[in-house]
Amino acid sequence: MGEKHDRLALGIDLGGTKILTAVGNTKGEMLSRDHSITPATEGQQAVVRSIIESVDRAFDQAHISAADLAAIGIGAPGLSNPETGILFTSPNLPGWKDVPLRDIIEKELGRKAFLINDANAAALGELHFGAGRGARNFIYITISTGIGGGIVIDGKIYTGALGTAGEVGHMTIDNNGPLCRCGNKGCWETLASGTALAREARRQINEGVRTSILDYVDADVEKVTAEEIHKCAEDGDSWAASLIARTGYYVGVGLANLVNVFNPEVIAIGGGLSNIGDMLFEPAFRVAEERSFDKAFRATRFALAELGRNSGVLGAAAFALEQVRNAGKVQQDE
Ligand SMILES: [Zn+2]
Hints:
Layout lengths: L2 H5 L1 E6 L3 E7 L5 E8 L6 H19 L8 E6 L2 E3 L4 E4 L7 E3 L1 H9 L3 E5 H12 L8 E6 L3 E7 L2 E2 L30 H5 L1 H13 L19 H9 L3 H25 L3 E5 L7 H14 L2 H5 L2 E4 L6 H23 L1
Helix pairs in contact: 4-11, 6-8, 7-8, 8-9
The structure holds zinc ion (ZN).
């Protein structure tokens, strides 16, 4: 087996709107990277074709072929089982039900593949190559339209009995809170995501609150987004600032739960909403401190995620290399 075989993996980050593929090595360096759109509405076969086309371009760029890879890692949105390689369902991929995605990719590319949830892949990316470097107990959360996350315990991603663990965005924060897309009420992401921030803003505007934000959106309430609210707050609108602080409060409540349950060394926070910075995080950390065990809170380092959009694709590749390494160890032990 050549040197390349042990060290190179292909990462696939399948999103609801975008597909990212990259050839990565054990240091988290990308030899190539390709992105394309996910033809989600055209069905499963079209999406798989789009993945393979992107992979071919990534191979060309890196001047390698599938034979040069140790393995392939696939990060996919929704609920999946890493043991069986089956994607149960995905809110971002309509019509997908119990799809053997790992086997499909394995067959297409002729190399061993592994399937993992996209947020778990991103957590592994940050653990190995980003904000979580060196940590054994680590939590990654991404706050954007929803809240996703991944939990690393003693150096390993925690996937639970069926593989669905780590859905931090769906812990109940307010049992009478807003209805979540998962069917539950008051999930963390219904109160602390960018979508939640914008929804609350629109609700208050419709109730007649005084704010300058309508100047930013051509007086169209439907155009109010987290980004506009942030801009408006930075320009001195106290209502917008208070809405961000309210969202920060709920971010903090969820962080306190994570600190108390997991006592992590590092919590890395990524996603679009984290770009707001101090206006969001000052109230968040204040509330998190108030609500968590002193000792555990002081031992937790909160950091911004470092890899941006590449966390998932790098993490998927790292996961594949890790699985191959572990399989090798088991063989040696036998
Ligand atoms: Zn939910």
